[in-house]
Amino acid sequence: MAGLFREQRHDFLNHFQVILGYLQLNHKDRAISYIHQITADMEALSSVTRLDKPALVMILLMAVQKSKSLEVNLRFQTEPENLSCQIFSDPLVDFFELVLNTSIDCISRSAQGERWIKVTLKESARELRWEISFSPQMPPDRILQKLREGQTAPFDQVCPRIERSEAGTMLIFSFS
Predict the structure, then answer these.
(1) 67 exposed, middle or buried (CB, 10 Å; 0-12, 13-18, 19+)?
(2) CATH code of the domain in which 109 resides
(3) Which of 175, 159, 7 is nearest to 88 (CA)?
(4) I need a labelling partner for 64 at 20 to 30 A (CA). Which of 17, 47, 103, 105 fits?
(5) Start and end of every SpoOB alpha-helical domain (predicted)?
(6) Comparing C-alpha atoms, which of 46, 51, 38, 50 is closest to residue 12?
(7) What residues make up the domain containing 24?
(8) pLDDT at 156
């Protein structure tokens, strides 16, 4: 966790250096554009930081740092926006961490081109659903194979679905 804070502090200071450099070179438009980009990135994480499960928030923030270092574009969405996380038991949090890290590792080793993952967490009164979408060149079968190799619970109780389209591939996990 200390490493995460060090990396975020480092990134934060780097952003200031970039903005200062643009301003010193009289590139006001670039500075403004850069600030808008950083703001958009931070807004994208706001749904993560509002989650009601601190362990899950830390896992997601560490995944963001890991994906940046591996040049994988990682995005999150929650539905509803104020996800309560009541169904997210501790074993599910651990399993989610395994699924997310396995996904990042697999796509970082995949073919060249655009590498992205979009994680959508959906919650209803009776169900928790994870939709993990990948760039088109990512075969989700590799991720499922890696997860099966470990045979960690609750994977043995879950049958993830794969949906393919021209836009990419999606792994869907549902828990009641």
Answers:
(1) buried
(2) 3.30.565.10
(3) 175
(4) 17
(5) 4-50
(6) 38
(7) 1-49
(8) 56
